[in-house]
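Dissemination and training. As part of the outreach component of the grant, students in the summer workshop were shown how a complex can be specified as a set of sequence lines and then modelled as a single object. The example used during the hands-on session is reproduced here so that future cohorts can follow it. Participants entered these lines:
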Amino acid sequence: MALQEVKVPDIGDFKEVEVIEVLVKVGDTIAKDQSLITVESDKASMEIPSAAAGVIKELKVKVGDKVGEGSLLLMVEAAGAAPAPVASAAAASPAPAPAAAAPAPAPMAASAASSAGPVLVSVPDIGDFKDVEVIEVMVKVGDIIRTEQSLITVESDKASMEIPSSAAGAVVEVLVKVGDKVNKGTPLVKLAGAASAPAAAAAAAAPASTPAVAAAPAPVAAPTVVTPAPMAVTAAAPVADGKPAHASPSVRAFARELGVDINRVPGTGPKGRITPDDVRSYVKGAVAQLVSGAPAAAAAPASGGGGNVSVIDWPKVDFSKFGEIETKPLSRIKKLSGANLHRNWVMIPHVTNHEDADITDLEAFRVKLNEENAKSGAKLTMLAFLIKACVAALKKFPEFNASLEGENLVLKKYFHIGFAADTPNGLVVPVIRDADEKGVFEIAKETAELAALAREGKLSPAQMQGGCFSISSLGGIGGTYFTPIINAPEVAILGVCRSTTKPVWNGSEFAPRLILPLSLSWDHRVIDGAAAARFNTYLATVLADFRRVML
Ligand code: CAO
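and obtained this result:
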């Protein structure tokens, strides 16, 4: 069966725009008008739909490529009837939704030249956008706005678009609200002291940096209708802190469907773009917080009640003023773990207890076992003994092997222990399953394998799930004590630092003992200080005399 080319159709002002997402893969069966890729300019993102239906045989673009009208996207084997051989599907089909971005002529009403009375700014020709929903109103009464300043964001099922003002002036009335449907000609705002339309016409030709006009409202006369120049399709809706939520229209639609304020979702895609998975993770996090009875800071609107954490804005500093700098984007793992750590730090009332464990005998035992097994190549690590000792402590103090769910404590009868692994891209926590059923050699082998996979970025999600309790061991690096952050929904974590030989009073003299510093962070909603002290003391006792693990 002959293949058919699918190309980028006429996408108006979008020239040489970057592909930020490829939404299909070879083998997919696609329908006509199904979105294939998302492209993005500096102000806008847009999904490009397919002009043909069929099975994708070849993809001709990848993330990072630059495309424009006519760029070849993919080859499909057309469904049903034999297709015209290698016909340009894009050329044969009508311009799809993105054509809305195509510049319509800028109809400037001559009567708008007057600045005497209030000026009514309405929706310009927005191409295929018909009955599109207002998803954001970006100005309010009293705002002094400049020409080209965005007034509202509208969205169809395929694209979102900011509608700019064609005039400058003071907003005296806002005529639309979120949820309204608008079309070409729908009045948006009434401006007083408006600058003349020629300025707006100039802005249409080349974005003007017209300063805000702070004229006093003129006496009300018959409103002058001004139709702004067309605008770029955009996904960048400003939020309260001035940072845009960077998401494609379909992701915005998905977020709205789930009742999620897109501006609150941390983006982990390229340039901080919000992906469908980000929206899912956000919802999961919000639900988990609600279920656990914790205040739903992430889920609640900023203006909501008591559960929110309200903080002042992050300081904005131009560091380059003080010396040479280099800016590097955070890795994907850092962004993901950062969001989790932040939530856990904010939501969980942490307390950390410190304890010293005398591991002189255990270290001697470990060294002896390693010598005995030198030929096998298997190396016993202190971490393996720590995992085993923690299992013993978790068995003795079951509330540490638990998760909070609303007003219930879910007590786990299994013992899956996570351990923090430092990787070039950031922190990950692989999990040793059923550590109670494994010996220290098996645990040591498994931690080494999982740590290697972690460093290569090859851990599967399943290898990081199901943990009951975590250990963060900095023993190989150094330090004395620290405050590990609990890995929710677990309720405690053990931090371990480097063991050192210290003089310890044995009743008659100071003797050199190998001391391992332990730092146990626990969730004070579940555990109290006395229980934590007992857990830590017991753990130290087990490490001091490992035979106790069997008791
Ligand atoms: N005291 C003294 N020495 C220790 C020790 C301790 N508590 N723990 C480990 N060591 C020694 C080991 O015996 C090993 O020595 P040799 O090379 O002579 O055999 C050396 O330090 C290196 O050990 P390691 O850290 O590579 O191996 P490990 O099994 O102890 O730990 C892992 C594995 C994955 C936990 C570790 O490599 C790691 O990534 N740690 C960092 C965890 C982290 O980042 N935590 C912070 C989380 S909060 O940001």
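Residues 81-115, 196-242, 293-306 have pLDDT under 50 and may be disordered. Students were then asked to discuss how this feature might be tested experimentally.
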